[in-house]
Amino acid sequence: MGDKVAKMLGKAFAASGMVVMFSGAVCFFCFVLGLIVGGSGGERLALWADQIMNASMRLALVTTVLGLLQMYAAREQALTMNDSD
What we know:
This protein is mainly α. It contains 2 helices and no strands.
């Protein structure tokens, strides 16, 4: 049972991580395009990128929690030091 939960959490962690990275790329391109366009159109693009960035930060928090829960469910001890390290 624990392995299934760990696998499910791992897949959710990977999917949400990809969405966060994609939204970061969208924000970057919106800011670059906004600088090129300028004026009110550039301002709208920058404000839209700001909204995406705020949602992306919240999703990054959820992604981090999913990763920690996955490590807990899989009983991994990735954050500890062993003598073999």
